Amino acid sequence: MSLRFSEKQKKVLTWWCASSAEKTYDAIICDGAVRSGKTVCMSLSYICWAMARFDGAQFGICGKSVISVRRNVVAAIVPWLTKLGFQWTEKRTENLLEISCCGRTNRFYLFGGYDEKSASLIQGITFAGVLLDEVALMPRSFVEQACARCSVEGSRLWFNCNPEGPQHWFYREWILKKEQRNVLYLHFTMEDNPSLSEDIKRRYRNSYTGTFYRRFILGEWTQAQGLVYDFFDRRSDCAPPPVGACEKYIVSIDYGTANPASFGLWGRLGDTWYRVDEYYYASRREGRQKTDAEYVEDLLGLLDGRRPETIIVDPSAASFIEALRRTGLPVQKADNDVLSGIRITAGMLKEKKIVLCTNCEDCLREMELYCWDDRVGKEAPRKEHDHAMDEMRYFAVYLTKQAQSDTFFAAAVARPIQ
Q1: Cα separation values, 382 from 166, 226, 341, Å
Q2: 317 and 399 Cβ atoms separated by less than 8 Å
Q3: Which of 417, 356, 412, 366 is nearest to 388 (CA)?
Q4: Which of 262, 317, 408, 417 has CA atoms 20 to 30 A from the CA of 218?
């Protein structure tokens, strides 16, 4: 736990103090690069402000999900709370963190703003302040509802995020209107995080390219355009299929009847997952649609006796998921968050955590055609040449969630008993 803070982090930590020139602002926004030190200093400052200004009050800590709040915010600040002499208790069934210090006690409720329905979860509660972590990933209705809950005298709003596109509602309504909303706006780069070594910063810079480099390394709210995976070159980024058996197998599936169906067979060797084989069926090209039972037989043929750890399936394919479950195969629905999934997939491809094999022609073909759609009002890839792309994204997100779950569990086990 580093005790060093950059000048920008110090401003976040002290902007609300009586001696600060920024104390009259109603809100603070921190945006910018990944690993730039925004979340820890903002979360710590938020807790210290709440405990210094209120007693017996309620506060909100919001993220895209309650799990992400626990991982990104709670796990990050708990060591600081203990070091600073705060007493805290987490009541997981209530999604509540109760913090006490110097005779004061306040309650911090954890919320996830995953979709438009999430706004109903936060209705009716009164806050003295709210922290919205990863605010650009939350729906506008949830964010506006959370802000509307802050009706206590002296309440303030705290936002942080990595950039998205320049048409994103948060950028247009909050960052571009920061003066009229009386917001302190601070833009972070990795240079604002003194805990990062030059080697670590170099590794992050090498993990992104194109749009994602400009967003997550330079911290720009930039438009996505051109090929989605513009860095990919099959001559240098592919590998021959591994010889022999892999340590584990996973299958990812984008189901289609009129549209193509794509199955990816992934095998792990060491720290890398290889797309060792694939199945791709385009009914329009072949002149016949297949049934669920036929697709199950085709999947078994792809597996060729290999037992997968799990099969990750397009969540809209309800009948096919049921057909797979009747075979006794382990199945789960995929997370279909497109933009976040594309970012995760791009990072894993760049870092060679997932590698496409040279025999996966349909996936490689789509990689070289899959592009952003500049014809629509919102940021999205074109709905064409996207079937292998969708199931590859399902797979990458699954791996990331598994890794995050393991990391959070290890951190939770290591916590001191309160």
Answers
A1: 19, 11, 15
A2: no
A3: 366
A4: 408
Helix (H, G, I), strand (E, B) or coil at 52: helix
Q: Are 364 and 232 in contact (CB under 8 A)?
A: no
Residue among 273, 272, 317, 286 at smallest CA distance from 299: 317
pTM: 0.73
pLDDT on residue 167: 85
Per DSSP bridges, beta strands 104-112 and 248-254 are unpaired
Grouping H, G, I as helix, E, B as strand and the rest as coil, residue 220 is coil
**Residues 76-114: tens digit of each pLDDT:** 899 999 899 999 999 999 999 999 999 999 999 999 998
Percent of the chain with pLDDT over 70: 95
* Strands (DSSP E) found in 315-409: 331-333, 354-356
Q: At what angle do helices 387-414 and 75-83 cross, to 10 degrees?
A: 20
Question: Kind of pairing, strands 87-91 and 96-101?
Answer: antiparallel
Whether residue 156 contacts residue 23, with contact meaning beta carbons closer than 8 Å, is answered with no
- What's residue 395's pLDDT? 98
Judged by DSSP in three states, 107 sits in strand
Tokens representing residue 235 in the block: 């001559």
Q: Across-strand partners of 267?
A: 249, 274
pLDDT for res 417: 34
Q: Which two tokens stand for residue 333?
A: 């629905």
267, 395 Cβ separation under 8 angstroms: no
* Paired residues of 280 in beta bridges: 262
Q: What is the pLDDT of residues 141-196, one digit of tens each?
A: 999 999 999 999 999 999 999 999 888 999 999 999 999 999 999 999 999 999 99
